[in-house]
Amino acid sequence: MTQTRSLIDENGIRTDGRTGNQLRDIQIKVGVIKNADGSALIEFGKNKIIAAVYGPREVHPKHMALTDRCLLRCRYHMSPFSTDTRKNPAPSRREVEISKVIREALQPALMLEDYPRATIDVYIEVLQADGGSRCAGIAAASVALADAGINMRDLVSACAAGKVDDKIVLDINDTEDKEGGADMPVAFMPNHKQITLLQLDGKLNSEEFIACLNEGITGCMKVYEVQRSALMQKYFGNETELKE
Amino acid sequence: MQEVRRKFVIPGDIVVEGNSRPLVNVHKSGNNIIASRIGIAEVGRDGAKVIPLSGVYIPRANDIVIGIIKDHSSLSWDVDINSCFSAHLPAQDLFGRDFSPARDDMSRELSSGDVVSARIATFDRTRDPILTVQDKDLGKIPLGELLKISATRVPRLIGKRGSMIQTIEHATSTRITIGQNGLIVVSGKNKDGTQLAIKAIRMVEEEAHTSNLTQRIKQLLGVEDNVQIDSKSRSGAPIDNDEGHDDSMLGDKKSVQSESESLSRDQ
């Protein structure tokens, strides 16, 4: 990836007006789909993504069932209207791959051995895309899984960091993803302090790599706060403490 | 009286640090007990647990459930119990030990679409649950309105020592059969009473985690506060409304049992 134009101005302001370590505005709404067992809508800057979770439920086709644990199926899909030019609704190579990495990012947080012979289906539908949609999708799916009441070790938070104009910045947007130097999506279990997804597109030296990873984890912690408050708001309203 | 500490938790939150026994919906990580569901965490002398506020029904042995007959093989009925596992009701349970698939017509006893209340005889996750109707008040439910609510709301609907459900039953002159799996059958003599009972059940489902719910249900049903049945059932717990939902979330299995017993007396 070679950068052709400057994406950070002399005051350190990025193309969308943010500073280097600033996240886009994040809003999460829990329980937006009544038919699903758990659901969440995330607005991550200009990204708008719905995640819906069904299950644990019976596996169809039955031969896919696992005898010792639950089957986790993920489908990441971009709507035809989610991008500038129409996206073919058929699952692309990229979507199949992202579905797989999201499944693997969520799996360590779930106690799948509690529901043998059943399945949990996670549907992630991108309504509007603006870079970092896999991270936003993971954050929404993790909230939806918690909303569905599935046994989890921890929530999974996700955020990308990257290199733009040779600087390490947090939460890469679409322009920076396409024109910047490197993009590193990170998914993280905040309470267990474990990384469940780490990808890197671009080139970083070892110092940059460590700085970028740390920046990504910092972003995940900020995303976690939003996830947490969204769940708390849905289940406990404005009450934060139980009245004895 | 044992001291119980409560707090709101989401998955990953620390319920208690140090040595405590993990009970339900929690797991141990290092030296901490961590919540694995959204709900109300309780730490008592016997251990730490989370009372969940969402989730599907996972069968437990001896639960009383309501199921819908889906199909039958030559030896058992397949029953949908609103769970990720489909249950089996052996034909011998209804026909007796001399049941013969060649001689006995299974659809004579139960056919597809019938609603039954049953007890889970065995279940251990490695195999599908086996049901039994060999208990008092179990078996085919001939008539009534079938409702489905979240299984996590069932203890709240029953209330402390059955207070909530008795309030609804008495105010609407209906008979309400509750399954631990979230299926409910409401049967009443008149349509208005049934409709009102359904409305009250829906309200309990939606507002299960809020305080003062019993009060609002009574308002909806037009029941005065000092109705005899309530004062009797609440005599041991005068402050039912403020913190009642936490305790009542626990009063599950026994309450269903006592509920079905009270039904049998009525019948």
Textual characterization of the structure:
- The complex is a heterodimer of chains A (244) and B (267).
- Chain A is an alpha+beta fold and 244 residues long.
- Chain A has a single domain, classed as GHMP Kinase, N-terminal domain (Ribosomal Protein S5, domain 2, 2-Layer Sandwich), CATH 3.30.230.70.
- Chain A is built from 4 helices and 10 strands; from the N terminus they run ββββαβαββαβββα.
- A 5-stranded mixed β-sheet of chain A has the order 1-2-3-5-4. In chain A, strands 6, 7, 8, 9 and 10 form a 5-stranded antiparallel β-sheet that branches.
- In chain A, helix 1 (93-106) crosses helix 2 and helix 2 (133-147) runs parallel beside helix 4 (206-236).
- The longest helix of chain A has 31 residues, at 206-236.
- In chain A, 46% of the residues are buried.
- The mean pLDDT of chain A is 94.
- By secondary structure, chain B is α+β, with helices and mostly antiparallel strands.
- Chain B has 3 domains: 5-52, OB fold (Dihydrolipoamide Acetyltransferase, E2P) (Beta Barrel), CATH 2.40.50; 64-140, OB fold (Dihydrolipoamide Acetyltransferase, E2P); 145-266, Ribosomal Protein S8, Chain: A, domain 1.
- Helices cover 29% and strands 28% of the residues of chain B.
- In chain B, the strands form 4 sheets. In chain B, strands 7, 8, 9, 10, 11 and 12 form a 6-stranded antiparallel β-sheet that branches.
- In chain B, helix 4 packs antiparallel against helix 5 and helix 5 (191-206) packs antiparallel against helix 6 (213-221).
- Chain B is flat.
- The chains are: A alpha+beta (244), B alpha+beta (267).
- The A-B interface holds A 37-38, 55-58, 67, 109, 111, 114-119, 146-155, 189-192, 228, 231-232, 235-237, 239-244 and B 6-8, 10-14, 25, 27, 29, 34, 36-40, 52-56, 58, 84-86, 125-126, 152, 209-211, 242-243, 246.
